[in-house]
Design goal:
Length: 237
């Protein structure tokens, strides 16, 4: 893996499952060497440059997001340490739409309250990523009062077949309701799973059935395909 690999921002749509309408996009990095972003971040962590790499990726996503449909929000991924960097605030001031920061599941509990304050000060909204995995449990939801709780895809898939998965998911959903957070289910891969998300009463969803991460210059084409295949409306974006 080359440390000089170039990254490009791709965008995956986020769907309001009750209205079947596209409301936003998650920014995701893709590297031209084909190595996964998580692996690039792991190596950067070992070399002491993870925060620098995350800032580069966020800056690239902010620049690319300017070409997205104007009414959709954009969400960006960052670790708790990167969220505290003053350089991040400068980048986020350039965002031309509503935006949110997704707190990695692996963020230490000690980082989280400072992150909540930082996001509020910057004028964004906070998402807890991978709820149901690691530190991202009901206590974190109730402590942080996020605006959106993203349900871990592995938990969602397990809830479809296993009672303990359904019980854990129910606790996560209740914690989100208790703090008046919207819920977003990740990993929706077919029509049956989309139906299951709607039956849960979740607010939002994303996954390959609802659009794969796509370079910004092909987002319009991807949204047209989504409307034809699934009946999701992207008008007004």
């Amino acid at each position: 893996m080359s440390s000089t690999a170039n990254a490009q921002a791709h965008f995956q749509p986020i769907i309001d499952v009750q209205r079947m309408h596209v409301v936003g996009f998650e920014a995701l990095a893709r590297f031209d060497d084909g190595v996964s972003p998580l692996e690039h971040l792991r190596v950067a962590e070992e070399e002491g440059r993870r925060e620098h790499l995350e800032l580069q990726l966020i800056e690239a996503a902010v620049d690319a997001a300017a070409s997205l449909p104007a009414e959709g929000f954009v969400t960006l991924n960052a670790s708790g340490r990167t969220m505290s960097f003053p350089e991040l605030a400068e980048v986020l001031r350039r965002v031309d739409r509503s935006w949110g920061l997704e707190l990695f599941e692996g963020a230490e509990p000690s980082e989280c309250l400072a992150v909540r304050d930082q996001v509020d000060q910057l004028g964004g909204f906070l998402l807890i990523d991978d709820a149901g995995a690691g530190f991202a449990d009901e206590k974190r939801i109730r402590d942080l009062h996020p605006d959106i709780v993203k349900i871990d895809r592995a938990l969602f898939w397990r809830s479809l077949t296993e009672a303990d998965g359904r019980d854990q998911l129910a606790r996560i959903l209740q914690a989100a309701r208790d703090v008046e957070a919207r819920t977003l289910v990740e990993g929706v891969e077919d029509a049956a799973q989309l139906d299951a998300v709607r039956e849960l009463g979740a607010d939002l969803a994303q996954g390959y059935h609802l659009g794969r991460p796509t370079a910004v210059d092909r987002v319009a084409e991807m949204l047209d395909d989504l409307q034809r295949r699934v009946g999701v409306d992207a008008s007004g974006l």
